[in-house]
Amino acid sequence: MHTCLNGISKMIYTQFLLAATAGLLLLLLFKKWAQYRGIPPGPWGLPIVGYMPFLLKGDPIQMFQEFKKKYGKVFSISIGNFNCVVINDYKLIIEAYKEDVFLGRPAFEIQITRSHGQKRGILFAEGNVWAEQRRFAARTLRNFGIGNKNSMETLLQNEAQELGNFLAANVDKPMSLKSRFNASVLNSLWYICTGSRFDVEDPDFLFLITNIIDNFQKAESTGVVFFFPWVLKKDFLIKGFWKKYLETRDKTQGLIKASIAEHEKTYSPTENRDLIDALIEHRKKSNNPDSSFYGSEGEMNQLIVLLDLFVAGAETSSSILQWAMLYMIIWPEVQAKVQEEIDSVIGSSRIPSLEDKPNMIYTEAVLCEIHRFCTLVPFSVYHSTLADTKFAGYKIPKDTCIFANMRDAHHDKEFQKVPGATLSIQPNAKTFIVAPKPYEIIIQTRA
Ligand code: HEM
């Protein structure tokens, strides 16, 4: 009798556990449903990984074009733990990014790791830290812009001159310009940040050239890096990536720290030599514990701001130069018109300066068109929502990862119909070159 009762109570207990688990699951499902009810429509993905496997197998740019046709200009897509919303329209992107609620950054581990566990600096920061650090860096860099021997303009002129000398010394030799562009760009950025240049043979410099840009390109080549960091930490997919990533982070930050220490030693409040001096001065003056310049947080933000400028500018600037070179080869008639304008406005006895800009309308239009046509960062740098919000008639929950589809905006046929909206350097181009394969060029002197 006793055993029988025991059996019955065990059964009741098991049934209760099953019912409670099912109830809990239902509750969780209901919570999820309530949270995501009213979000933009979009394709279904798989549990846990979401739509990632399909994105990896195909071309996300083309897939997103199809989704835009099917679901509209704003659609949802889930990737791993992240609920993402893709905005596929120029005006809507502008509209969204005017709102503070869209100015967050997703908490991607790869980015947090880079800034020691917090959203610091500018590029991957948000809120007060982002606003203060960005405002200060922009203002300071503008002040260093033009007009003295240490100005950014003079520096870039010198760097361009050196690049020109290199090309002149290598006429008729096939070469890849990638590493040469990387060197010029990294040295320019290093100068902007620290007020000094590297010797091009310096092993530290060679390490940075090879690794910063390579890491960036590998990270960009697959979104897995952002959404599934464990894949890389476990050394799947891109062998050795995580180790190299941390090594490059530490090495780059070590070099920046050494430069800050050197600046601290020689700092004088009467002499503002460069961005680091300006940051030191601002930190020293900061006595508000809520400020992102205050105390040890201020020191950490200083390090990450310098890193941000260095890293954000390096791959982008170097790649756009390669694209520009490639396009000038593919469209020689455009190259000839640019050359004509250079010859007539600047001539060959001096280097260009910013003062020439208003007189070089065609060249400037071509530069803008190169940016538009290749769209270096096709989905921009991901934003995220800082709170629940409404957009384009949909609900967008807090922490939604936002993709601004720049590729779509730049190639929107409707937008291109606006008179004078764009000067197409490729009127007859049938194909879009998706990524520049390594290519060699031969520089020849003009007759
Ligand atoms: C071809 C050149 C470049 C391209 C195509 C490019 C592209 C971009 C894009 C798409 C963003 C994201 C904007 C957003 O989140 O809404 C961005 C942000 C940023 N870029 Fe660039 N960039 C270039 C050059 C540079 C250079 C030379 C520097 C530094 C000297 C730089 C520093 C930054 C910084 C600090 C941010 C973060 C801004 C913020 O979060 O408010 N970029 N860039």
TrEMBL record:
Q: What superkingdom does the record give? A: Eukaryota
**Where's it mainly located?**
endoplasmic reticulum
Q: Which Gene Ontology CC terms are recorded? A: endoplasmic reticulum membrane
Signal sequence span is none
Q: State its cofactor.
A: heme
A Gene Ontology molecular function term for this protein is:
steroid hydroxylase activity
Q: What is the annotated localization of this protein? A: Endoplasmic reticulum membrane; Microsome membrane
Membrane topology is:
Peripheral membrane protein
What the entry lists under InterPro entries is as follows:
Cyt_P450, Cytochrome_P450_fam2
What keywords are annotated for this sequence in UniProt? Endoplasmic reticulum, Heme, Iron, Membrane, Metal-binding, Microsome, Monooxygenase, Oxidoreductase, Transmembrane, Transmembrane helix
* One annotated GO biological process: xenobiotic metabolic process
Q: Where exactly are the transmembrane stretches of this chain? A: 12-30
- Record's family? Belongs to the cytochrome P450 family.
Annotated function: May be involved in the metabolism of insect hormones and in the breakdown of synthetic insecticides.
User: What name does this protein carry?
Assistant: Cytochrome P450
Recorded source organism is Allacma fusca
